[in-house]
Amino acid sequence: MSQGVVTLPLCNSCNRPVKPAERAVHFNCPNCHETVIWRSEKCRKFSRRYKCLNCGFEGP
Fold first, then answer.
1. Is 45 helix (H, G, I), strand (E, B) or coil?
2. CA pair distance 23, 30, nearest whole angstrom
3. Are 11 and 44 in contact (CB under 8 A)?
4. Distance CA 45, CA 30 (A)
5. What is the 3-state secondary structure (H, E, C) of 1-44?
């Protein structure tokens, strides 16, 4: 029996995997609405900047 591989999303600010139990958020880019942006709990807490990989929009 083969096991599936789970790929965790990466935080757009720190590039670390976002764990399932973490209080992270994800949303569509406010500018282009095409890319999903993930933010870890820690990056949200410290207001670290993120950047959309599609259009280059930067946010707090």
1. helix
2. 20
3. no
4. 19
5. CCCCCCCCCECCCCCCECCCCCCCEEEECCCCCCCEEEECHHHH
Tell me the C-alpha distance between 55 and 31, whole Å: 8
Question: What is the residue whose two structure tokens read 């976002």?
Answer: 18
Contacts of 30 by beta carbon, 8 Å cutoff, 6+ apart: 57, 59
Instruction: Kindly state the DSSP code that residue 60 receives in the 8-state scheme.
Output: -
| Amino acid in position 16 | R
Q: Which helix or strand (DSSP H or E) is residue 58 part of?
A: strand 58-59
In this prediction the pTM is: 0.84
Residue range 2-44, pLDDT digits in tens = 678 889 999 999 999 999 999 999 999 999 999 999 999 999 9
